[in-house]
Amino acid sequence: MKTEFLRITGRPEEDDEVIRRAAEVIRRGGLAAIPTETVYGLAGSALLPDSAAKIYAAKGRPADNPLIVHVAYPEDT
Fold first, then answer.
1. Which position among 6, 11, 14, 41 has the lowest Cβ density within 10 Å, counted as fewest Cβ atoms?
2. pLDDT 10s digits, 25-71
3. Which residues is 7 bridged to in the sheet?
4. Could you give the CA distance from residue 41 to residue 6 in angstroms, rounded to a whole number?
């Protein structure tokens, strides 16, 4: 597994590319660590079952503890 470190700088001209790169990693089945209000979370594609398995494995999370799925628009569900 390859780990790539991407950093948000606060400069839109740089950050747009970082966000695009992270989105591409997720689309291809990889994971991205993202900051939340209180902790860091692991993001993966809810459309790829292997992504969920990778999150469970990385966190050592029990399989009976469901993951949260975020969607941009209700009609995307």
1. 11
2. 999 999 999 887 888 889 999 989 899 999 999 999 998 999 989 88
3. none
4. 15
Q: How confident is the model at residue 10 (pLDDT cuts 50, 70, 90)?
A: confident
The whole-number pLDDT of residue 43 equals: 93
Q: What residues are paired with 32 via a beta bridge?
A: 43
Number of other CB atoms surrounding residue 44 within 10 Å: 20
Domain boundaries, the chain: 12-76
CB < 8 Å & 24+ apart, contacts of 50-55: 51/26, 54/29, 54/30, 55/31
Q: Is the pTM of this model over 0.85?
A: no
Burial letters for 15-32: b for 16+ Cβ neighbours within 10 Å, e otherwise? eeeeeeebeebbeeebbb
Tokens of 50: 């292997």
